[in-house]
Amino acid sequence: MVSKKLIIISVVVVLLLITAHTLGGYLIMYPVKPDFWTVVSESSPQYLLIALALFTLIAWLISHLRIKNVKVKNRFLLVFTVLCGILLSYVIYFDAATYMSTRKAVKESENEYIQQAKEDIKKDKIMYRFANGLAIPEYDAKTQNKIDSIRKKFGISYFNTGCIVDVIDVEGQQKYEEMVKPYLEKRNGKAGKKR
């Protein structure tokens, strides 16, 4: 007879594995804040199904080895549960390690931008960085010079960092904007951005 406890443990481990694999995608995608279906699709559930099928095959093969006092069905469940538990541990470790390293990189980027904001405030030259690809001139040289002189008057300049959008750098840029906003409001007035 199959042990009911072993069945319950197996089901719980499989459900935890599915949950960790799926929601771990959210941790891996940090600092992006995706919706639930993006997380599910990005977690590539087909790989988890392949792993579960492989575990089933391995457990079935091992369950046919003779082991004293353990029935075939219990051996199958035991091996399957152990394999799922090992994969669960790996998934949790990998996702947590990825999240922690990304979080550390975001903090470093934010700290660099905070330092840059302090330096730019001292110089009275605020520079907004943005990723926009190759810039195609929207205006003729005369109009562009007028725009640049207006920006200079308000102590602002813009710098195109290229076409690669780095979400970690974007988080740092947002921190920079938070730091310089009060300074610019004090320097140019609350309506300075609009003007």
Summarize the structure.
The chain crosses the membrane at residues 46-63, 75-94. The protein starts with a helix and ends in a 7-residue tail after the last helix.
Describe, in plain words, how this protein is organized in 3D:
There is one protein chain. This protein has helices at residues 4-28, 36-42, 45-63, 72-123, 141-153, 167-188, and strands at residues 126-130, 156-160. α1 (4-28) packs parallel to α4, α3 (45-63) packs antiparallel against α4 and α4 (72-123) packs parallel to α6 (167-188). α5 links the parallel β1 and β2. The radius of gyration is 28 Å and the shape is rod-shaped. The chain is built from six helices and two strands, in the order ααααβαβα. It has two domains: 4-103, no CATH class; 124-188, no CATH class. Helices cover 71% and strands 5% of the residues. With 195 residues, the chain is mainly alpha-helical.
